[in-house]
């Protein structure tokens, strides 16, 4: 929310510097993200206010004009100074040869001025110095500026016109410059989504006087202010705070019906006749631009102005178009109906997009069809145009949830929907309608002819109770009751003091909510607080305590100790195991990454995983993105998606993730089972490039790099000896290099290199990608379970190398298991160190060489004992696997 300081000053006196005010607001919950200074970079000597004295044709170009701009009036010291500049702006071309000219004040840039370069498509446009130039034979030492060239907006089709009373020669910074607060508002601060709302907060925090527009309940209704804001009369000046009053004729030329009162509590329609469409006055255009909105026309600008000023979204219909639509359906006059949309119904909104409705949206419609999506955007068929003469203003209160769902469904988030989704009080409808009608009367020559009000659900007052002991309990502040009452009254709460034992009457609504969690000590007075009409966020006593804290100041709340002892910590073996895994993998040179748990069914199918029906996925009803619709069933999906997104930044990725997968079929009831799993991903060269020759480091990471990392992790966790690696070539999504990790007869995980076809479908064509996914829960060990360290032998070991020729289908794991069984307890260690195929070995065989370490804890092994062990091993390999000792 952008709050121009100059606009804010119309409603409240700012007694503090802007920087101090921004800090006060932030500490009160209205986070000021930035303070923007408009025109801070404008040079006061070269960017000034000019008056257009004449516009003549260019002697050598039909699409250019010569604009004579007065930079200093004749009555000032030094006499009149003028510059003739060349421009191609369409609005200036249309004035060539016109005499007398209307009063036109423009932004004149003289040679040497720094301006924004209006050309190019870059988001952040560079600035450049304006140089004198000869344009088609005519010297030009300046230019008249557009909004884009001054950095005010992206508008570049016309020259920026200033207020008629802007002093000629005055630095532009003094006329258009100013400070703007950028405020980030939480959902409970809907009341502050307007200039008046922020003014109320400033008045409450600083104690300054508040001046509200006439008709706003709670305001003084008195005209005041200084400068233009306090002046009355002409359309060239902003209206004073209490200036606008309008009368209403009795004839009604529109019917209004609310078919869904639960989602539309109130709907008002005001008919303003005889408007003349044209540009808004300069003061309104400047305020809209400063608040972040682009001026369009006086009627549309008035609706936006009132929305920014009061917080009530308005919509303007062309009443004559509504009348013609009604006549085409046989009705004598327009008939507005607030109704649910029909499934499949379509509407073309003001942005020119045709949108299909699913039946959940709430529509503003007439007898001919939809006119707008309630609370989101109006339709294009009845919008304001250059020929509009009679305007029907709409002000309504729609259900916040209904508007939020419609905006999300249509992917259409607007200024109006952002306010309705936070809540708009029904009382504000009439205030805003009359304010807008008065502005249209003043700025467009209109006349308020009728107001129709349908209010099936009255706005109920919001009440809650508070005591001094409750404030002390929640804030740790011992505030007397009169001070608490004063804080709330500064926020325009109506406070009534209840005597002890008098009971609590919360009025409409539940007494239980008004006193929810309230501490009342014996004999203690209770404050019954009624929130002002514009506050929809007050429900329970805690809401009142928060208001007291904001006014007193959070800095006044002392630091206190807990009044109770902390509960003892309980060990979590699962979390301890996960942290241990993280430490180990980081120690192996990997980086932890955190991915989205949301993905798509198509991403699962790209990996070639077995197809599953949609009910096998946890599906979101209202996904924020089409790429985030279901919860993942495999960690590999997120790992590969993240890899494809990050390869644009680096060619070498070694990462892991500890997270959850979601399996509905294994869950209990409606909740899916959430399994904790680990994914590891490797791709790119084995080592980073170096000035030193490193052929092995330039090779891509492969299956055995991944296997080695997992073995190092399992060894540190004490599981390596209990995990078996079983080849599973071709299991999806892997190619020939794939293996399963088996522990205790169950599957622990899988690892391998992605199949080239899978890699291509995932946007990783031609790249070797190694991934693994492991279950974490089977690896959990409680912290008190310690692995017993094997005893150290005092006797020397005997080391021998044995090579066995075995059939090709025999794996190294099977051969090692046979050797271990035959070697028994005297075989202390076994390590594979060589694999050989080829001559002179027979076809279909291979040679596997192991280093065997024999050692006893009782005595030194002799040659005969080692020979007997070797013979037993050789015999066991021959009998079980058909292998023999290689000669």
Description:
This protein is α+β, with helices and mostly antiparallel strands and 887 residues long. Helices cover 25% and strands 27% of the residues. It contains 23 helices and 40 strands. A 7-stranded mixed β-sheet has the order 28-31-32-36-35-34-33. Strands 3, 4, 5, 6, 11 and 12 form a 6-stranded antiparallel β-sheet that branches. A 5-stranded mixed β-sheet has the order 14-17-20-21-22. α7 packs antiparallel against α11. The longest helix has 19 residues, at 863-881. The radius of gyration is 39 Å and the shape is elongated. Residues 219-233, 242-250 and 505-510 have low confidence and may be disordered.
Helices and strands in order:
Elements: E1 2-4, H1 5-8, H2 18-27, E2 31-38, E3 47-58, E4 61-72, E5 81-87, H3 90-93, E6 105-110, E7 114-116, E8 127-129, E9 133-135, E10 138-140, E11 142-144, E12 161-162, H4 172-176, E13 178-184, H5 195-206, E14 255-258, E15 264-273, H6 282-290, H7 298-310, E16 314-318, H8 319-328, E17 335-340, E18 346-348, E19 354-356, E20 362-366, E21 369-373, E22 377-378, E23 391-398, H9 400-410, H10 415-420, H11 427-443, E24 447-454, E25 463-466, H12 468-475, H13 481-490, E26 494-498, H14 511-514, E27 526-530, H15 541-552, H16 573-587, E28 591-592, E29 598-599, H17 601-606, E30 630-631, H18 635-646, E31 653-668, E32 671-683, H19 695-698, H20 703-717, E33 723-727, E34 734-743, E35 746-754, H21 756-761, E36 769-775, E37 798-807, H22 812-823, E38 827-836, E39 845-854, H23 863-881, E40 884-885
Parallel strand pairs: 14-17, 28-31
Antiparallel strand pairs: 1-13, 2-13, 3-4, 3-6, 4-5, 6-11, 6-12, 7-8, 9-10, 15-23, 15-24, 16-23, 17-20, 18-19, 20-21, 21-22, 25-27, 26-27, 29-30, 31-32, 32-36, 33-34, 34-35, 35-36, 37-39, 37-40, 38-39
Helix pairs in contact: 6-7, 7-11, 12-15, 16-20, 22-23
């Amino acid at each position: 929310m952008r709050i121009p300081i100059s606009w804010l000053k119309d409603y409240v006196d700012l007694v503090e510097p802007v920087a101090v005010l921004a800090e006060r607001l932030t500490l009160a919950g209205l986070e000021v993200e930035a303070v923007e200074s408009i025109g801070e970079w404008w040079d006061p000597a070269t960017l000034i206010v000019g008056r257009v004295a004449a516009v003549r044709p260019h002697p050598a170009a039909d699409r250019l004009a010569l604009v004579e701009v007065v930079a200093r009036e004749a009555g000032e010291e030094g006499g009149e100074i003028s510059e003739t500049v060349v421009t191609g702006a369409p609005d200036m071309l249309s004035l060539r040869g016109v005499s007398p000219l209307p009063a036109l004040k423009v932004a004149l840039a003289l040679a040497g001025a720094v301006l924004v370069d209006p050309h190019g498509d870059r988001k952040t446009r560079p600035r450049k110095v304006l140089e004198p130039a000869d344009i088609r034979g005519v010297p030009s030492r300046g230019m008249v500026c557009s909004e884009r060239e001054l950095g005010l907006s992206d508008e570049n089709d016309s020259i920026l016109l200033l207020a008629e009373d802007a002093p000629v020669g005055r630095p532009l910074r003094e006329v258009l410059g100013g400070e703007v607060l950028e405020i980030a508002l939480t959902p409970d601060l809907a009341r502050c989504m307007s200039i008046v709302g922020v003014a109320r907060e400033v008045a409450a925090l600083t104690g300054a006087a508040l001046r509200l527009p006439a008709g706003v309940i709670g305001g003084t209704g008195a005209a005041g202010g200084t400068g233009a804001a306090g002046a009355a009369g002409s359309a060239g000046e902003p209206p004073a705070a209490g200036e606008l009053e309008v009368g209403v004729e009795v004839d009604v030329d529109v019917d209004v019906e609310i078919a869904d009162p639960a989602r539309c509590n109130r709907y008002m329609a005001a008919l303003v006749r005889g408007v003349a469409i044209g540009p808004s006055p300069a003061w309104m255009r400047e305020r809209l631009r400063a608040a972040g909105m682009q001026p369009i026309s006086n009627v549309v600008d008035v609706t936006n102005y009132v929305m920014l000023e009061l917080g009530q979204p308005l919509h303007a219909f062309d009443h004559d178009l509504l009348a013609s639509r009604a006549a085409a359906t046989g009705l004598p006059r327009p008939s507005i109906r607030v109704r649910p949309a029909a499934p499949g119904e379509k509407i073309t909104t003001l942005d020119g997009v045709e949108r299909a409705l699913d039946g959940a949206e709430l529509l503003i419609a007439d007898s001919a069809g939809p006119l707008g999506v309630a609370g989101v955007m109006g339709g294009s068929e009845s919008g304001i145009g250059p020929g509009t003469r009679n305007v029907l203003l709409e002000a309504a209160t729609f259900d916040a949830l209904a508007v939020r769902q419609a905006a999300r469904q249509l992917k259409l988030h607007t200024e109006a929907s952002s306010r309705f989704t936070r809540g708009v009080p029904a009382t504000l409808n009439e205030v805003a309608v009359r304010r807008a009608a008065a502005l249209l009367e003043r700025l467009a020559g209109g006349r308020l002819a009728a107001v129709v009000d349908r209010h099936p659900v009255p706005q109920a007052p919001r009440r809650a109770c508070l005591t001094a002991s409750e404030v002390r309990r929640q804030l740790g502040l011992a505030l007397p009751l009169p001070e608490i009452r004063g804080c709330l009254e500064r926020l325009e709460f109506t406070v009534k003091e209840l005597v002890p034992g008098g009971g609590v009457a919360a009025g409409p609504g539940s007494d239980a909510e008004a006193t929810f969690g309230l501490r009342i000590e014996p004999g203690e007075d209770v404050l019954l607080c009624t929130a002002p009409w514009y506050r929809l966020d007050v429900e329970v006593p805690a809401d009142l305590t928060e208001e007291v804290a904001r006014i007193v100041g959070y800095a006044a709340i002392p630091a206190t100790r807990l009044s109770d002892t902390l509960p003892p910590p309980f060990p979590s073996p699962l979390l301890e195991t996960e942290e241990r895994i993280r430490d180990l993998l980081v120690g192996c040179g990997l980086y932890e990454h955190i991915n989205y748990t949301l993905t798509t069914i198509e991403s699962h199918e790209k990996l070639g995983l077995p197809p599953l029906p949609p009910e096998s996925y946890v599906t979101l009803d209202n996904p924020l993105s089409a790429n985030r619709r279901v919860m993942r069933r495999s960690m590999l999906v997120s790992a590969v998606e993240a890899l494809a997104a990050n390869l644009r930044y680096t060619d070498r990725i070694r990462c892991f993730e500890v997270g959850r997968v979601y399996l509905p079929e294994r869950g209990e009831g409606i909740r899916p089972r959430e399994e904790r799993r680990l994914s590891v991903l490797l791709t790119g060269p084995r080592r980073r490039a170096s000035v030193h020759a490193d052929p092995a480091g330039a090779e891509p990471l492969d299956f055995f790099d991944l296997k080695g990392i997992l073995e190092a992790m399992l060894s540190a966790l004490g599981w390596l000896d209990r995990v078996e690696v079983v080849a599973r070539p071709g299991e999806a999504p892997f190619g020939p290099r794939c293996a399963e990790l088996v522990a205790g007869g169950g599957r622990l995980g899988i690892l391998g290199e992605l199949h080239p076809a899978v890699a291509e479908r995932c946007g990783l064509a031609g790249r070797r990608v190694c991934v693994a996914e492991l279950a974490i829960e089977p690896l959990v060990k409680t912290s008190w379970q310690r692995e017993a360290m094997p005893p150290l032998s005092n006797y020397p070991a005997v080391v021998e190398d044995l090579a066995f020729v075995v059939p090709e289908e025999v794996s190294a794991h099977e051969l090692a298991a046979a050797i271990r069984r035959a070697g028994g307890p005297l075989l202390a260690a076994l390590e594979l160190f060589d694999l050989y195929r080829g001559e002179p070995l027979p076809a279909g065989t291979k040679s596997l060489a192991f280093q065997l370490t024999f050692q006893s804890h009782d005595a030194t092994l002799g040659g005969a004992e080692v020979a007997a062990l070797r013979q037993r091993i050789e015999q066991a390999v021959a009998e079980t696997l058909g292998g023999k000792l290689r000669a």
